[in-house]
Every structure is written in structure tokens, then in C-alpha cells.
Design a protein that fits this description.
Strands 1-2-3-4-5-6-7-8 form an 8-stranded parallel barrel, surrounded by 6 helices. The two termini are about 50 Å apart. The protein is of the alpha/beta class. α6 links the parallel β5 and β6. Helix content is about 50%, strand content about 10%. The structure holds phosphoenolpyruvate and manganese (II) ion.
């Protein structure tokens, strides 16, 4: 479902941002010196907004749960010294009031709060009538509606300076990422709310320093508006997220190494070439759809034969054979095993749907006249 949001530019303070908007600072404020030193060093690079977690939502108890309100003062001081706006995470009404009282410039809602409509609504109500930018992280679970719902709640409370932050989605099991990016979800968010700036948070997606650059570059190539990167003066000693934080100089290096490609160019030859290639893609897509329709007709026929002979729809050995062989065939054409499995899982689901319809169709008895 699409929603119409009233979106204004994220920040209309003294500075105007150029793409990418870069938000950086420590995962958690730990001491006055750590916050000030990190921010001073970051300000030497193209960093637009300073961040620090003051109240930390930790997965398990007995971890460092944030320094609390005193950290707001340190961050505000860092903002004053560097001339940069500062942002913090708020998870409840108390956090909102304390941040507003301290003159924090921008708020963000964390992934563990976006999942909870009660919490988001309370924050939105507390912000009614306040003109402050709010960035909303995706919920921990891959639920676009929940992400949009949080943005909608804030917008209905009068917040127009909104942005989404893509920080990836929780997974169970082994993965190269701490939080799976599932890029298709922020891409769909951008399609549904085109004016909404979206910032990618490679730090929480990766959970490790060595692949931050690749994810940051990918975000730029996917036309994200900005990046949120966690920086710390002594990352390995950080009280939270030690594995993913980088020293401010590395953050600067990541930003400086980004290749920013244009979304489009006004070059007639280039536009014609793209147009031709897109026409070719459209033709191939038409063929794919026709062929899939044909495949489903055959599946219906199989369903009819199975019905006549009283056998079940699902034939596990045949299905196993298909998955194995199609992956091998796909690899010969440069298609990954994962892609082939996903495509064939979808085709199989659709095929079963067609066969089920045939199986359960009640034959109309000829009318006796
Ligand atoms: C954070 O930004 O430090 C944080 C807690 O992030 P998330 O809500 O994405 O887990
Ligand atoms: Mn963090």
C-alpha cells in the first residue's frame, strides 16, 4: 500500500547537504574526551552530522547500556566546537524530552523501536508541534510496512523532515553480514516514497570493519542519499560495537574513496544506447513471461494427469532433481546457484498453485434436461 507523506528537506539549518550526507560518531558516548576527540577528528573530513548513542538498546542485559543524559552535553559541546548538527537515538518520551531540552538538532529512532508501534506513536505524540528532523531506522525484521508505518506516524504528528536509515535485517544463522542488507526493501521504500532521503548504515549491516567500504560504495551506486558510519578513537576498546567501528581517519578515507556516479546524464548518445538496451530487455521480459505462461499450462496438464491417476501433487525426488539440475544449467550462463534456487522456488510455488486448482476443480455434471 502506498502512503502520501509530506516530506521536506532533512535539514534546513545553516548548511545545505551535498550527497552523500554523512553521519558519523561513536556507537556510544563513553566519556567527554572520547566524544570530543572523535568528533574533532571527524570534522576534518566531509562529515555533515555528528552522532552518539546515549541510551543503548543492548540485546542482552549486563552490557554497557549507555552513559545516559550526561552524554548529551558532551555531544552538544562537540557540535558547538565543530559547527556541525548533532543527532541521538530516542526510544521513549523521556529520551525525547531530554534531547529537546539539550537542543539536540536531529533525532533518530532505532531498529528495535521501529518494530513497536506503541513506542513510535508515543514518540510521535511527544514531538507534535516540534520542528525537528527525525531519521527512522528500518525495523530489525524485514517488514517494509512497519518501517513505513513509523514514518507515517511521525508525519501525521507534523514531522516533515524525515529520512529512512537502512541498517539491515536480523538473520538467524551464518552470514557474512551482521544484519542482512536485503537491498530490495530500501529500494522499494524509495519507490513508494520518492522524496524520502534514505541513508545507509554500513556499520550495523556489516558488523565488521573490513567490508564497510564495499557496502558504502554499493549504497552510493544504488542512489542512497547518505551514510551513517560509526567512528571511535579506539575502536577495539569501544564499550559497544567494537568490531564495526573505525577511527575517524578511516571513516574519512572511506568517504573520500567513494566513487559517485551520476544517476543519469544529458548525453544523447548515451541515452540512445540505454534506450536500445532497455528495449531489448523489454523484449526478453516479454519472452520470459510468455514462456512462463506456457510452463504453467504444462503444469496444469500434469495436474490433470495426476488427478486422473490419483497421485499427489508434490513429487519430492522430481523436485530435488529440478533444483539440482537447474542450478547447474544456470551456472553455465553465469547465474548464481542462489538466484536459480530462488527463481525455481517461486516457479514451483506457482506451479503447485496451478496444479492444486486443477486437482480440486469440481467437474460440472452435464445438466439433465
Ligand atoms: C546504533 O545506531 O548504535 C544502533 C543501536 O543501531 P540499530 O538501532 O540499527 O541497531
Ligand atoms: Mn552501534
Amino acid at each position: 500500500m502506498n502512503v502520501q507523506l509530506d516530506i521536506a528537506p532533512l535539514y534546513t539549518g545553516e548548511m545545505s547537504f551535498t550527497r552523500p550526507v554523512v553521519v558519523s560518531g561513536p556507537c556510544s558516548a563513553e566519556s567527554e574526551e572520547q566524544v570530543l576527540e572523535t568528533c574533532r577528528r571527524l570534522a576534518k573530513y566531509k562529515v555533515d552530522i555528528l552522532r552518539a548513542g546515549i541510551w543503548k538498546p543492548r540485546t542482552r542485559p549486563n552490557c554497557f547500556e549507555g552513559i545516559g543524559s550526561v552524554g548529551l552535553k558532551w555531544l552538544k559541546q562537540a557540535g558547538k566546537e565543530t559547527g556541525l548538527p548533532v543527532c541521538v537515538e530516542v526510544a521513549n518520551v523521556k529520551h525525547v524530552y531530554e534531547s529537546l531540552r539539550m537542543g539536540i538538532d536531529i533525532l533518530w529512532i532505532g531498529a528495535r523501536t521501529t518494530v513497536n508501534p506503541f513506542a513510535v506513536q508515543e514518540i510521535a505524540d511527544a514531538l507534535r508541534g516540534v520542528d525537528i528532523p527525525v531519521m527512522v531506522k528500518n525495523p530489525v525484521n524485514p517488514d517494509l510496512a512497519l518501517w513505513m508505518g513509523a514514518l507515517e506516524r511521525l508525519n501525521q504528528a507534523g514531522i516533515t523532515k524525515l529520512a529512512g536509515i537502512h541498517r539491515g535485517f536480523s538473520t538467524y544463522g551464518k552470514s557474512k553480514y551482521r544484519n542482512n542488507p536485503q537491498w530490495e526493501i530500501p529500494i522499494e521504500l524509495k519507490r513508494r516514497i520518492p522524496d524520502l532521503p534514505i541513508i545507509c548504515d554500513p556499520s550495523h549491516i556489516c558488523g565488521r570493519r573490513d567490508i564497510l567500504q564495499d557496502v558504502a560504495q554499493k549504497a552510493m551506486d544504488l542512489n542512497f542519499d547518505g551514510l551513517m558510519i560509526e567512528s571511535h578513537i579506539n575502536p577495539s576498546k569501544a564499550l559497544s560495537d567494537a568490531k564495526q567501528q573505525v577511527v575517524p581517519e578511516r571513516c574519512g578515507e572511506i568517504i573520500n574513496s567513494l566513487v559517485l556516479r551520476d544517476q543519469s546524464k544529458d548525453d544523447a548518445v548515451l541515452l540512445n544506447t540505454l534506450e536500445d538496451l532497455r528495449t531489448e530487455i523489454d523484449q526478453v521480459d516479454n519472452e520470459i513471461i510468455e514462456i512462463m505462461g506456457k510452463r504453467m499450462k504444462i503444469a496444469q496438464e500434469i495436474g490433470r494427469v495426476k488427478k486422473e491417476n490419483g497421485i499427489q501433487i508434490l513429487q519430492p525426488t522430481r523436485w530435488d532433481h529440478i533444483i539440482q539440475h537447474r542450478s547447474e544449467q544456470g551456472e553455465k550462463h553465469g547465474l548464481t546457484g542462489q538466484f536459480m534456487t530462488e527463481v525455481y522456488n517461486s516457479i514451483h510455488t506457482e506451479s503447485i498453485r496451478h496444479q492444486t486448482k486443477v486437482m480440486n476443480k469440481v467437474e460440472e455434471k452435464p445438466k439433465v434436461v
